[in-house]
Amino acid sequence: AMHLFKDVIATPSLTYLKVLRSTYESYTQWCVDKGIAKENNYSNIELADLNECVFKGNLSFITREDVLKWCSEAENPRDQFILLALYEGIRGKNYKEIIDLNIADVDFKHKRIFIPSRNGCVEASDELLQYAKYSYETDDYVREDGIVKKISPLPRGSVVRRVNISRSAKEGVNMAPSPRFIYATYVRLTKLLPMDDISVSFVQECGMIDFIRRKAKENNLTVSQYFDSSECMDDVMCQYDRVLYRSVMWEKYNDYLK
Question: Are 79 and 67 contacting, i.e. CB atoms less than 8 angstroms apart?
Fold first, then answer.
């Protein structure tokens, strides 16, 4: 049974392997009950065993310093904002939180950003606030070939806006960024920077680990103590707007949570 997970299925997702194990275990048990199979080997596979089968490829943990370095190498504030926003937990379904972000939602004084779809705020680093400000204020976008394009002033107040690409449209009239546009921007950045083939989900997971480590230090706790606190982990889930399965996360990233 372990051969299937280790040598046949190459995935970086421990959650996917858990679901797969459960599916195979249920089906094999049905076969045992019907006399088709003699035993159910999938019932003996532990979480630690599955973690050993996670395909890690060339991926290594992404630190905050890595992301800030990549941002500094990106040419445009808009791209810098998108990359760091993803790392700090701003995404939403179909990247809606990035697409809908208005400069009025950015609280520079209290270092937080209001997310309308959550009806609440997330913490924002000084760097992210700076990128948001520059992205909103910048009218020019420098392409990879060095050509400078004008950024549309619409939608008004938007932090992330597209360049004017329609020759037939009036100056400044342009549709808001689409989910495909945000993802394409991210993919293009991964090709230009030393982060090829790194998924958005992996970037966000590393951001969560960094958040946990920083908050533990701020609260004079060890990382393990912070991770074990339900109240503290609620803050993590609020920042990243996702349900966390601590046992899975611990198995996958325990080297960085000690």
Answer: no
Q: Could you give the dihedral angle defined by the CA atoms of residues 10, 14, 18 and 23, in that order, rounded to the nearest 10 degrees?
A: -30
Separation between Cα atoms, residue 257 and residue 25, nearest integer Å: 30
Rg (alpha carbons) of the chain, rounded to whole number? 22
Place of tokens 């609280």: 107
Q: What are phi and psi of 112, to 5 degrees?
A: -155, 165
Structural element, H or E, at residue 148? strand 148-150
Count Cα neighbours of 115 within 13 Å in the Cβ-side half-sphere: 24
Residue 187 CA to residue 136 CA, distance in Å, equals 22
Task: Report mean pLDDT in 10-residue bins for the chain, 258 residues.
Answer: 51 68 87 89 77 60 92 94 97 94 97 95 98 96 90 89 64 70 91 78 91 94 90 94 83 78
Give the tokens for residue 126.
């000084």
What gap in Å lies between CA 211 and CA 197, rounded to an integer? 23
**Distance between CA atoms of 5 and 19, rounded to whole angstroms?**
12
Q: What is the DSSP string of 59-115?
A: --PPPHHHHHHHHHHSS-HHHHHHHHHHHTT---GGGHHHHT-BGGGEETTTTEEEE
Per the CB < 8 A criterion, the answer to whether 37 and 74 are in contact is: no
Identify the DSSP state of 195.
Answer: -
Query: For the residues of 16-63, what is the DSSP string, one character each?
Result: HHHHHHHHHHHHHHHHHHTTS-S--GGGG--HHHHHHH---TT--PPP
pTM: 0.77
Give pLDDT, residue 74. 92
